[in-house]
Amino acid sequence: MLIQENLSLGQKLEILADAAKYDVACTSSGVDRRGRKDALGSAVSCGICHSFAADGRCVSLLKILLTNECIYDCKYCVNRISNDTVRTSFTPEEVCTLTVEFYRRNYIEGLFLSSGILRSPDYTMEQMYQALWQLREVHRFWGYIHVKAIPGADPALIQRVGHLADRMSVNLELPTGEGLRKLAPGKSRGKILAPMRQIQRGIQDNRLRLEEVRNRKKIYPGRFFPEPPQVSAALSPAASSSLASPALSQSPASPVLSPSPAAARPLRPPASSGALGYEEKSQFVPAGQSTQMILGATGETDYQLLAVTQALYRNFDLKRVFFSAYTAINEDSALPALGTQPPLLREHRLYQADWLLRFYGFQAEELLSEAHPFFNEALDPKCDWALRHLEQFPVEVNQADYGTLLRVPGIGVKSARRILRARRSCRLDFPDLKKMGVVLKRAAFFITCGGKMRESTPLEEAFLTRALMAAEPKTAKGLAGGFRQLSLFEDFHVENPNPGPEDIWKSLSGQL
Amino acid sequence: MENQEEKTVFVCGGDPDDILTAVYDAWASRKGHSRVRLEVEGESQPELFCSYVPVETDREKARKVAAAVKKKIGGRAWQMVYRAALSREASRAEDIYRFLVGGFYYGPQALDMLAEPAVYRLWELSRAVGNEAHFFREFLRFDQRENRILLGRIRPKNNVLSLVTPHFADRLPQENFLILDMGRGLAGVHPAGGAWVLARLEPQEAEKLLAAKADPFRELWKTFHRAIGVEQRKNPRLQQSRMPLRYREFAEEFLE
Question: How far off is chain A from B79, nearest CA to CA, in Å?
Answer without folding.
Answer: 18
